[in-house]
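Reviewer 2 asked us to include a model.

Predict the structure of this chain.
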Amino acid sequence: MSESAITDQEFGLFQRLIYKLAGISLSDAKKVLLVGRLQKRLRHYQLDSFSQYYRMLATGEHPEELQTMVDLLTTNETYFFREPKHFDFLREEILANRRSPSTFRVWSAASSTGEEAYTLAMLLAENLKDAPWEIVGSDISTQVLEKARRGHYPIERNEGIPPALLGKYCLKGVRSQAGTFLISPTLRSRCTFHHINLTQEITADIGRFDVIFLRNVMIYFDMETKRKVVGNLLPRLQPGGYFIIGHSETLNGISCGLTQVRPTIYQKD
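Predicted model (structure tokens):
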């Protein structure tokens, strides 16, 4: 089957669909990306056009394919210790001043393949020692959540992990696993991952948190969706807890009971 082009009308259908499902505003500049990621699905079903693929999705008879489409269009790049100033603040301000004996809980709300969640786990293991803690990760993509649960990465993904932590919490693959590393079972046992759509009411039984990381995902949302997402997450944040967003993001225009304590770092009133 030859490569299928996409018309402006067809692209509009998928723009509205992904917005409805995930709250993502797909700009016209993403047309090439959409074609590149969905073309293989047309070939898989031997379809001749994106209209045919859309009609197949719209019938609701293939929910697993709808999830596949969401997975393909929402998979975002991430890496260990990304935007390190946030982790410095967690270590130097939040953890250093913590006195409560209760379990310290952090939510990596757009965890992708798990690098952020395991970065947090390394920091908590180092700084809370024997005190109880746990990490919850979530994402809209089931595909990346499976990778996160495995905690198994190509060796080149270890850039950014301090050598001492790399040696302590990452197992280097040998023989058939050469060229990879695995997050230690000790850390993985303290991290759970859930399939959650942040734009919808959160019904998952994940409890409440001392810190919520929601980084580098709101750049894909319009203002209405940002308000909805923040409104869905804040009831899960403890009073006095911290809400951390990406360095290229802002909560300007969102009145939500948070006070800014640093750029991109907010505290619940």
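Residues 94 and 190 are 19 Å apart (CA to CA). The chain is about 40% helix and 20% strand. We have added this to the supplementary material.
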